[in-house]
Structure formats: C-alpha cells, structure tokens
Design brief:
Blueprint (H helix, E strand, L loop, with lengths): L5 H18 L4 E3 L13 H6 L15 E7 L2 E8 L7 E5 L6 H14 L3 E5 L17 H18 L4 E6 L1 H13 L4 E5 L7 H7 L3 H14 L8 E3 H4 L9 H8 L8 E3 H9 L14 E6 L7 H8 L7 E6 L9 H16 L5
Parallel strand pairs: 4-5, 4-6, 6-7, 7-10, 10-11
Antiparallel strand pairs: 1-2, 2-3, 3-5, 8-9
C-alpha cells in the first residue's frame, strides 16, 4: 500500500490553505497534518483507494483540503475541493457504511477535475468528525446539520448547491432538501425510505434484525438503553457494500466507515424519520438517481418506492453498468461521472 509522504503533503496542504483563505471560509479551521483528525494520519482510505481505477487514486497533487466546521459542539471534518469559478457547488453525503473521504475518492475529486467545487462531510459518528459526548447523535441531527451547512455555504456565497448522497446519504439528501428548500438539485445512489417494511427487510442483515431487532431499538431508544451501540455489520447487509471481496475486507476493517457501530438511539431515529415533504409533495428541485446495476444491497425497486411518488419535479434514473453499491468498477464509475456532470450542466444559477 502506498503511503503519502509527509513532506510533500505539507506543500500541497499549504497551497490549499492559501487558496481557501482567499475565498473567505472564515468560519472553518485548518487541520494540522499531525492531528488524529486528519486523513493524512489514516491508512484505511489509502488501502481502499488501491481497489479503484488508477485514474481515480489520489496523489500528492490532488488531495482535498481538510477543514473543521464546528456545529453544536461537534467538530465536523470537511474534505474541500475549491473552485471560485465553478457555477455550481456539490455537497457530498456518505451513508451508514462509508465516510466523507470515500466520497471524495469516487465523486469529489473527479468532479473537481471537471471544474466543480465540492465538499464532503464526515457526519457525526463517522469519518474523522469529533463528536461532543454531551450531545448524543440522532439521524434527525444529520438532517439538521446538512440543512445548517447549506445555509452557511449560501450565506458566504450565492452559487447554487447540489446534494449528492451515496446509500443512506441519498435519502439524507432528500430529507435535507425537503427541510431546507434552498437546494438546486439532488443526486442519490439510492433513495431508501426505511418506513417501508420491504426496505427494512431487504437492507437489514436478515429478517430477525428487520422484524425484531429494529422494533426493539425503537422501544429501547426511549429508555436508558438508548446509548447501547451495535456494529453496523450486525444491523445491516454490510456484506454487500462493495462487490470486490478484498475491497470489502478493507472497508470492514475501517472503524470510521463500514466497521462503525451505531447507537440504538440513532438506528431508531433513522428507521422512522418523517420528511417535511412527502415524495408526492416534493417540489424543491430536480432529482437524479445513479443506480448501480449490480447493487446487491439496495436494488432499483427500493428507490422506486420513493421516486415513483415524485411528480412535481423531474426525476432521472441512470443505471451504472457492472457497478456495485459502492462502485469500484471503472465502467460504472465513468458512467457515474458523466451522469453527474450532465445533471450539473443543467443547473442554472438564479
């Protein structure tokens, strides 16, 4: 596994910080390279990227800028690719088995090469975000965080914002857009409404978890047991995260993504979240689904349970040939990149 050289990283980081200061992100803080909150110190993502096509692997010349955004006591890690000339900005949202750096690998950096500004968020309890122990995290907090981040971005810069979400991040993008209503577009790699029993049955590890475990979490969330954590590999069908078995081992070994544990409190709120706009009433922005054709965790029919109800905005579905849930397959990744760029080109600044 290739390990990035610290001396070269320092130069790249210094250039990125200079660029950032010129664009006025005054509410954010730089991350020291020797900090445990920097991906410079994490080997997991470097191992994972070895399973991606070589053209997508990050090197010292295209690393994202790492920043901290403070939100309700949490120190939220950001991966930024800045471009003041980009007419649209894209916020990247991971799911319950990935993190922000893994979004930068397959979406953030490729879009940056097309001239788009992107930022990937490590949501609380994932990635390198440091969580305030006095503020237990619920899924509702994820929705509020994304909505507040959209507001913060628009306050400093009026350029349109598009949300991209992988896996559970797709529905998170929908939930945040429904709450915030100041989003120009949504792109999802699946849209999963966990209120449907079919979705629970097909995305949980097994029927025992979906029919017994999740209802137990819903009850326990209102008791002193709410803080008990379970491995996401036990709760969900994490074995279908990626179709390459060796890549899967690397993901599962990463405690900041697929190897993470979630509290009963979080799981209960995730399974039962009610959006501010139901799909039949959603009128905020166009939607693009980039559906991996070989997704053995969240196949197309599950997303259609949501999207078939959407009638007030355009909905586009693009299938990614040969791609798994987290795609590492080059053909599918190329199609993902093309579909997103075409969608973004259709977003017109107000």
């Amino acid at each position: 596994m290739a390990i990035l050289k610290k001396s070269a990283i320092k130069t790249a980081a210094a250039i990125s910080v200079s660029t950032l200061l010129q664009t006025g992100h005054a509410s954010e803080s730089p991350i020291p390279q020797d900090s445990a909150q920097s991906y410079h110190q994490q080997a997991a993502w470097q191992e994972i990227q070895q399973f991606l096509p070589e053209r997508l692997q990050l090197d010292l010349g295209n690393l994202p800028l790492e920043r901290i955004w403070e939100w309700q006591g949490h120190q939220v890690h950001l991966d930024r690719y800045l471009n003041p000339s980009s007419k649209v900005r894209v916020i990247l949202l991971h799911g319950v088995g990935t993190n922000g750096r893994q979004m930068s690998l397959i979406v953030g950096a490729p879009l940056a090469r097309h001239g788009y500004e992107t930022v990937a968020i490590d949501l609380p309890n994932y990635g390198l975000t440091q969580v305030d122990s006095n503020h237990p995290v619920r899924y509702d907090d994820w929705v509020q965080l994304v909505s507040d981040f959209i507001d913060a971005e628009l306050q400093r810069d009026p350029r349109p914002i598009v949300l991209y979400g992988l896996s559970a991040g797709g529905m998170l993008a929908y939930h945040a857009a429904a709450k915030n209503r100041k989003v120009a577009g949504i792109i999802g790699m699946t849209f999963l409404d966990q209120r449907f029993q079919r979705v629970r049955d097909e995305t949980a590890r097994n029927l025992l978890m979906s029919r017994v475990g999740i209802p137990f979490a819903e009850v326990a969330a209102h008791t002193p047991l709410a803080g008990i954590k379970l491995p996401m590999t036990l709760v969900s069908k994490m074995s279908a995260l990626v179709n390459d078995p060796n890549a899967l081992k690397a993901f599962l070994a990463d405690k900041t993504s697929a190897g993470n544990w979630a509290s009963l409190r979080f799981l209960a709120s995730y399974e039962n979240y009610v959006p501010l706009l139901e799909p039949s009433e959603f009128d905020v922005c166009p939607i693009l689904l980039t559906q991996p054709a070989e997704d053995h965790w969240t196949p197309l029919p599950l997303s259609k349970l949501v999207l078939d109800q959407v009638h007030k905005v355009p909905v586009t579905i693009v299938e990614l040939e040969g791609a798994g849930h987290y795609p590492v397959e080059d053909r599918g990744l190329q199609q993902l990149e093309t579909a997103i760029v075409v969608f973004l080109e259709g977003i017109q600044p107000e």
